[in-house]
Amino acid sequence: MFAVATVALIVAVGLALVRSALGPSVFDRLLAANKIGTCAMLLLAVMSFRNGRPEFLDLALVYGMLNIIGTIAILKYFRHGDLGDPGDGDREPAQ
């Protein structure tokens, strides 16, 4: 059962790599990169159950949170052009 899950996740990562290389837009590539991160997190969870090492689940959760934060940061960069910009264009700069 774990071997089938591992092979399925590796195939999904391979397809996501193809999508990230051939994606017509930046957002398709970002979605593929997010999918690779999610599959890596699931592979860590499968390895944890397979080897009987529950500390890998903690690593998978941390990796998942970093994946989400990285995706949000990249989307903010593409939308605003700067990661330091707070995003409210109404405010005037302080003098």
Task: Describe this entry's structure for a reader.
The structure is a single chain. The chain has 95 residues and is mainly alpha-helical. It has one domain. Helices cover 77% and strands 0% of the residues. It has 3 helices and no strands. The protein has helices spanning 2-22, 26-51, 55-80. Helix 1 (2-22) packs antiparallel against helix 2 (26-51) and helix 2 (26-51) runs antiparallel to helix 3 (55-80). The longest helix is centred in the middle third of the chain and has 26 residues, at 26-51. The radius of gyration is 18 Å and the shape is flat. The model has no long low-confidence stretch (mean pLDDT 86).
Secondary structure blueprint with pairings:
Layout: H1 2-22, H2 26-51, H3 55-80
Q: Which properties best describe this structure?
A:
mainly alpha, 3 helices
H/I helix tally: 3
Q: What is the subunit arrangement here? A: single chain
Overall structural domain count: 1
Q: Look at the structure and give the mean pLDDT.
A: 86
